[in-house]
Amino acid sequence: MVKNGWYIGAWSDEVGRTLLQRWIVGRPVCFYRLQDGSVTAIEDRCPHRKYPLSLGRLDGDVIECNYHGYRIDSGGVCVGVAEQPDTPKASVHRFPLVERDGVVWIWTGDVELADPALIPDTWWLSDPGWTHVKGLVPLKARQVLLAENLLDLTHETFLHPSSIGNAAVAGTPIEVTSEGDRVSFIRHMVGIEAPPFYEKSMGLTSPIDRWQDGDFYAPGVFILNIRLAPTGTEEPEGFHMKVMYGMTPATETETHDFFALARDYKIDDAELSTFQLEQQLAVMKEDVDALEIQEVMVASEPAGARESSIRSDVAGIRGRRLLEKMAAKEAAAGEAPAPRRPRAAVAGA
């Protein structure tokens, strides 16, 4: 798992004055909101006997551990112990956080590298001209499988034919580019049949133009920019959507699948928002079911097994290699290396 990167730790409305535990990159994290309204996140292990601080009691901005009464402040420092006059020199790690556009971003690696400028721009989550639905789905599969899933939307044709997929997705090639810690692709489908989801939510009738422009910001954020319009309609006319996935590793084989589905049309239509949330969750269930089965197969494959790949895998393979490169860099600096599976080469990957 890559540690040096910004991950979605929580949605802002998840964090309040109740202690919240969430495992992130193999570490238990305790989130809570301070009396001044800001958010903090500290290692969820009491320095005394490792009891979860999230099971303790919040006294002002100090957590009192519910096992032996250690008192830990918002910076992770012990400031006292119940029934003992002297204070032990003890502390836990405090994670760098940034709260922006309703998202609590967390940095789990070297604190000296935690540059907020590296966080992807999510302006539409707070723009009054847009509305969105959001949530979190648990995934019992390693993060890289989800990254590959999102970077190769060809699977929509086969896995989601009753909602967002049709033959045009698999039948239209993508253009892939890479720059720094980002992998991007473009798929513009012109004069195609409208998938059921878009017919119902936008009132579109075939033929339509459908654009999918995706960006993977390693190690854990994917943003898909979608445009749909009657064929021949010029940009910026049409319907626009943005789908963000926060692929936050919980452990080596479990992932927090955060999602936000935003639109710039019918922003006051609550019924449409409910429909889109239901459809998004249905699509994600199909993905989760597939990825959890895939996890079982990947985890049980023999050492040295190879895998066939095709042209549509280029973006996914670049994303995987980028994660491997980042993990290898951390390994060279003393971090644990990420597991790797042999793959067959793909032209252009």
From TrEMBL:
Chain ranges of the Rieske domain: 6-106
Region (Disordered) residue spans: 330-349
Domain of life: Bacteria
UniProt GO MF annotations: 2 iron, 2 sulfur cluster binding; dioxygenase activity; metal ion binding; monooxygenase activity; oxidoreductase activity, acting on paired donors, with incorporation or reduction of molecular oxygen
InterPro entries (UniProt xref): Cholesterol_7-desaturase (IPR050584), Rieske_2Fe-2S (IPR017941), Rieske_2Fe-2S_sf (IPR036922), VanA_C_cat (IPR044043)
Keyword tags: 2Fe-2S, Dioxygenase, Iron, Iron-sulfur, Metal-binding, Oxidoreductase
PROSITE patterns: RIESKE (PS51296)
Cleavable signal peptide: none
Protein name: Aromatic ring-hydroxylating dioxygenase subunit alpha
